[in-house]
Amino acid sequence: MKVTVDAQRCQGHARCALIAPDVFDIDDEGYATVLCAVVPAELEDRARRAVTNCPEGAITVD
Ligand code: F3S
């Protein structure tokens, strides 16, 4: 499972980093970055919750 953040959509709500702090971080400008190119199996549920909780729909899963 891979996650990506669309920088054009991200508005810095930071829910992703709160829900899945081992998968997402917030950069110095307040926008999301992805910490792991491939999400470990044990973090997939949290990563999916982050996807559904992003109000901008900025995170996609492959
Ligand atoms: Fe950005 Fe959505 Fe996270 S707006 S900071 S990807 S919750």
TrEMBL record:
<keyword id="KW-0249">Electron transport</keyword>
<protein>
    <recommendedName>
        <fullName>Ferredoxin</fullName>
    </recommendedName>
</protein>
<keyword id="KW-0479">Metal-binding</keyword>
<dbReference type="GO" id="GO:0046872">
    <property type="term" value="F:metal ion binding"/>
</dbReference>
<keyword id="KW-0411">Iron-sulfur</keyword>
<dbReference type="InterPro" id="IPR051269">
    <property type="entry name" value="Fe-S_cluster_ET"/>
</dbReference>
<keyword id="KW-0408">Iron</keyword>
<keyword id="KW-0003">3Fe-4S</keyword>
<dbReference type="GO" id="GO:0051538">
    <property type="term" value="F:3 iron, 4 sulfur cluster binding"/>
</dbReference>
<keyword id="KW-0813">Transport</keyword>
<dbReference type="Pfam" id="PF13459">
    <property type="entry name" value="Fer4_15"/>
</dbReference>
